[in-house]
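Re: your question about Esterase

S., sorry for the slow reply, the queue was backed up all week. Below is exactly what I fed in.
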Amino acid sequence: MSVLSTLRHAGRKTVAGVAALATAAGLMVAGGGVAQAQGNRDWLRPDATGTCDWDGVGFWVQRCDVWSDAMGRNIAVQIQPSGRGGNAGLYMLDGLRATEVSNAWLVDTNAAATYADSNITLVMPVGGAASFYADWNGPATYDLENPVNYQWETFLTSELPAYLEGNFGVARDNNSILGLSMGGTAALTLAAKHPQQYRQALSFSGYLTTTMPGWQTMMRAALLDAGLYNLNNMYGSVLSPRRFENDPFLNMEGLRNTDVYISAATGVAGPQDAGYLPEHQASGAALEAASRVSTQAWDAKARAQGINFTADYPETGLHNWANFGDQMNKTKGRVLDVMNAH
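Result:
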């Protein structure tokens, strides 16, 4: 078991204690090594339970509980403060099978290590499986005895920005947002609906045509497979106006003044996919091919409407973290340039 896995399973409070001792000694745990603490990063911010905890991933990441009135509970958010007090934020959204343990950007790749030298605050919400980071009309699952209340759009565009502004110095109007798969869909949707908050949006293998024929059926099957989530309660009936308002293919006008980046590979396995099991390669191929079709359809319409964006279509790549992590690394410079956060 890796050091990261060991720390993750040791429990949040144990990890917090270890990191606190490291801080007291003037050092901060940073992945597999040790680095000198940075002024804007070496102290724990307050949160809904008192103070945030040091996260086991290292690299100055704090795990903070942020109260959501809309959802009626605390939402865990993993946050790496900007290196030198910059006020830009980068929201990093998870995929369909997001867990309550950690945002996958810190598990399946290490975004905190990638951005360790940068002057931007990484904002990585935990949870939201199958949510598409939307405000749902009703309980997200069929288990009415333990209803799941999803109000993610409200949290990400109202409640969390207020917390970040007050405790991490993140401006409400100086943010970038990216996501993989489900998170890529949500990144473009949220940026289009809230252009005053997000100056940049990046979709890595997202599904950008959610109301075209056949896509609601595919989403329904995916949500059921992810944990019996009820698509009917996301926006209401198939003809609900909210379904169309939250389709990136239909709301792209809101991105006219936004820096937009989209990507999707072919679904053809390359050398980077050799370590994946055959069954994972098969599912990854199908999911990525579908994303490619959807993303290119969005691309064609955006070009016709004069929306400025950049597209990257690798010749090989599956719907997996070899692909998503590569896109994160490719776009780091773009994010920092646009957000003036080097």
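Residues 192 and 253 are 7 Å apart (CA to CA). Confidence is low (pLDDT under 50) at residues 1-36.

Happy to talk it through on Thursday.
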